[in-house]
Amino acid sequence: MRVIVADDALLFREGLTRVLASIGFEVLGVAGDGEEAVRLVGQDPPDVAVLDLRMPPGHGTEGLEAAVRIRERWPSVGVLLLSQYVEAHYALRLMTEFEGGVGYLLKDRVSALESFGQDLRRVAAGETVIDPELVSLLVARRREEDPLGALSERERDVLSLMAQGLSNVAMAETLFLSTKTIEANVSSIFTKLGLAPDARDHRRVLAVLTFLRGGG
Description:
The chain is of the alpha/beta class. It has 2 domains: 2-130, Rossmann fold; 136-214, Arc Repressor Mutant, subunit A, CATH 1.10.10. The chain is 51% helix and 14% strand. Strands 2-1-3-4-5-6 form a 6-stranded parallel beta sheet, with helices on both faces. Keywords: DNA-binding, Phosphoprotein, Transcription, Transcription regulation. It comes from Nocardioides aestuarii. Residues 144-215 form the HTH luxR-type domain.
């Protein structure tokens, strides 16, 4: 699998490049800012662009803006944002603007090599990956008037894992439940959130958006 890496911190960038090579990824190029990242993708589109959220010149949302430009020009390229801190509104923007092939992880996740590699492959496959710490933070912020108030504890667990991008099979393995039980919980979540089937059936995305907005 082919990737490009963009981060203005030289040591982290080199370390990440070595980590990716050690777990079987081909690093096509490295960049120190968003503009260079976009240029590298244009030269030879990778499967995934791994971007630091904050890069020069302003150290604001340059990585996110680069991700938006990349997806507008090369829709098949997955984008994975890495951040030093949990910032829910940026993850929400990713979820809102793109239907899949995106991820938001804390930089600490890179050290868990096997898990990080799996997350990258999921993004490349068109899935959405959200950092578990962000999900936990949003759960902790729940209010009584929360739109998720009607969900049972089990359904909240399922939705939390859904927000991390897990499939029904993966959720079943994580919660030690049958796939049929997970499917029943997912169906119940859709019903309680008023998400009726539509032609594109993006109810999973809409359910997770509801979850993320509820934590704001």
